[in-house]
Amino acid sequence: MADEEKLMDTEVYVKGPRVTLPIEYNKRDLILYALGIGSADPRFVYELHPDFAAFPTYPVCFLYKGTSFDALPYPPPTMMQVPAPIMHGAKAFLDAEKYIEKVAELPKDGTRLFISGGVVGVHKKGSGAFIDKTFEVTDESGKVYYRIIDGTFQVGARGYRESGVSCSRTAPPPAGPPAHVVEMPTDARAASIYRLSGDYNPLHVDSHIARRQGFESPILHGLCSLGHATRAVLDTVAGGDQRRFRSVQMRFASPTRSGQTFVVEMWCVSPVEIIFRAKVKETGAVCISNGLMRLHPAASL
Question: What are the DSSP E strand ranges found in 10-91?
Fold first, then answer.
């Protein structure tokens, strides 16, 4: 009983009030994000292109960036305003899973929006803790632009009580070979470019900090890997047309590093549903699993 009483009560975070925080971006931010995920598509990197738009996974940056247009400390101020437990023994905080659903197009000229949400579940997983948060991105009138489920992993976390719900989703590849296999190289400076979109965690660029957290060298942002994998699937099955993007989910199965090449395998389970996973070409390790992209039918546009 004494040990039980010492466990951190995580239910206070699950049942606590949701927060609403302002976020802001401009055209330059959209272009910088697209470059950070390796895009050279003028629809995402050239502001005068007639179809210029935000790459559909850009909203993953909002909790990092907030309203700032400058370099930020880590953890960033906006993220720190979302109440979440920091567990005993936690030595690293990693992206674990993500679900991103586009409800409406982001204004391509930039704007001020709001992100609202908080913790919905805390669960034991492996050698740490898995924390689920849910968010909506809205404007001042309440119009919803995006829904996001954010799963993070606290490495080494211990001494806590589980609470809430799990939002983890599985999407195993079907039997048989993939319909498409695409190689997606990453730039040797990918982490240095991607961090300019708001995630300035030194784990991704500082060798000393990476070793202190148990890695041999800096690792690539999980959300940078997400952008590369999403781009590979969207380019292959929808000609890169972001208007067809409906949602994407994935799990970050193992760390990757700038300069590595992703091999993205895709199974088209329907005309609008694509299961995918990614491996690191240099090692053969699966780095992204449980990938599922949903599209709008081409005829509906």
Answer: 19-26
pLDDT computed for residue 1 by the predictor: 38
Taking the C-alpha atoms of residue 28 and residue 183, their distance in angstroms, rounded to an integer, is: 28
**Surface-to-core class of residue 75, CB atoms within 10 Å of its CB (0-12 exposed, 13-18 middle, 19+ buried):** middle
Task: Quote the Cα angle for 74-77-80, to 5°.
Answer: 85
Q: Are 152 and 187 in contact, with CB atoms under 8 Å apart?
A: no
Residue found by looking up tokens 């409406």 in the block: 104
Q: Which of 248, 273, 270, 218 is nearest to 147 (CA)?
A: 248
- The model's pLDDT over 30-82, given as tens digits with 9 standing for 90+, comes to 999 999 999 999 999 999 999 999 999 999 999 999 999 999 999 999 999 99
pLDDT digits (tens, 9 = 90+) for 212-264: 988 999 999 999 999 999 999 999 999 999 999 999 999 999 999 999 999 99
At 5, is the pLDDT very low, low, confident or very high (cuts 50, 70, 90)?
low
Buried b (16+ CB within 10 A) or exposed e, 165-178: eebbeebebeeeeb
Distance of alpha carbon 224 from alpha carbon 230, whole angstroms: 10
Dihedral pair phi/psi, residue 189, rounded to 5°? -105, 20
Contact assessment for residue 114 and residue 139, using Cβ atoms and an 8 Å cutoff: yes
Query: Which is nearest to 60 in space by CA: 188, 229, 285?
Result: 229
Q: Is the pTM of this model over 0.70?
A: yes
Radius of gyration of the chain (CA): 19
Tell me the mean pLDDT in the region 89-99: 91
Are 62 and 138 in contact by the 8 Å Cβ rule? The answer is no
Phi, psi of 20 (to 5 degrees): -125, 125
pLDDT of 110 strictly over 90: yes
Round to whole Å and give the CA distance between 52 and 27: 10
